Amino acid sequence: MTIDHKVAQKSVKALIDFIDTSPSPWHAVASIETMLTSNGFARLHETDKWSLEAGSRYYVVRDDSSVIIFITGSDPLSETGFRIVGAHTDSPGLRIKPQCAHAADGYVRLGVEIYGGPILATFSDRDLSLAGRVTVNEGGELSTRLVHFESPLLRLPNLAIHMNRKVNEEGLKFNKQTELPLVLAAISEQLSPQETFIALLAEKLDVSAEEILSWELNVYDSQKGTLFGLDELFYADSQLDNLASCHAAVTALLENNHSAPSSTLVCALFDHEEVGSESNKGADGSFLPDVLERIALSMKIDSEGYKQALANSFMISSDMAHAWNPNFPTAYEPEHHVMLNRGPVIKLNANQRYSSEAISEAMFMRWCEEAGVPWQKYSHRTDIPCGSTIGPMTSARLGIRTVDVGNPMWAMHSIRESAGVLDHEMMIRVLQHFFKS
Known about the structure:
The chain is an alpha/beta fold. Helix content is 28%, strand content 27%. It has helices spanning 5-20, 25-37, 77-80, 167-170, 193-205, 240-254, 287-298, 303-311, 358-371, 391-398, 421-436; strands at residues 42-44, 57-62, 66-71, 82-88, 93-104, 107-115, 128-138, 141-148, 182-186, 212-221, 226-228, 234-237, 264-270, 314-318, 321-322, 345-348, 376-379, 401-406, 408-410, 417-420. The strands form three sheets. The chain has a nine-stranded mixed β-sheet with strand order 1-2-3-13-4-14-18-16-17, sandwiched between helices. A hairpin with a 5-residue loop joins strand 11 and strand 12 (234-237). It starts with a helix and ends with a helix.
């Protein structure tokens, strides 16, 4: 099957719009929730008793930044199992510290912590801003409010080459404690640096400074995503790892929105993958097992039937993959170059950094062929440590056969990543086929 360029561009423009309205994991889940409610999905709460109906659409949010979406199947769950696509909502970057603002020779700077493994040099000289969630005391009641500063607010100014003569030979490096704080403002004579920062949040949220209690704030690049290259075959934006996979998974699931599938279809999108997933809402936590078990219980499946359902299930762990970069050919395994715009990548690692094995690998290859989508295979260079995904941990926790896949991209963990336009539409198509098969 040939992927129509205009159709693929439409899919990528929808992805770019999704990313640009999702500058933090909390905003990503809020954006997904908007998509779900407009397509007839009902929100469930973990504190309530669930009463589910076959062929119905539901979603559950845990702590604002992880979400599990599902459509209940029409056939017995113990026989058909779950068809799951997993991905993650977080991306590596910088997070604002609690007591963050301090004076530095006439300027207010914000102290940051490094979240995950970003390429720090790519944050310099960018139009940075803030997004995340803030906890507010409103009349004695705690509430969580999303905050998103859309205009450039912060900067990490680079040092001129005249003071760093070897930067082009030795690379741009920042001391993580002393050289990463971000310039916010000039010193105010009326307010301390921390008061200046809290006043900024209070004004944005239309509350008093005294009502601001705590925050989790992500530093993001305010530049919008774009298509580029001859014939606009490529696109660039922040957070492609892994909001591109989240968008593909949700888009594929919504294709099944008006039909009653035989299997129960699940999208599980987790926070905290970039820092190990070991949290109450991470992939190595209880969220997915809790939800799957509650689906089974609500559908009158006993413990043995639930174990049967897991044994009859399959999971696609979808996370982005490393495309071959022609400027750095020695960084790659010579026989495993994967290319932009040539289809989804099956990720393989003998040490189980990825969950793919011969059978799950072959099954995904077959689904690609049936969907008319090409596929590629990736193996990491042996003398470079390999990254990992949510696949191995969720597969181990649940006992579900799993394959790790992803679309190829350049500059993973840069603040400005790039990928192929055709690949996003191809991933959507194979995930649609997986949900329908």
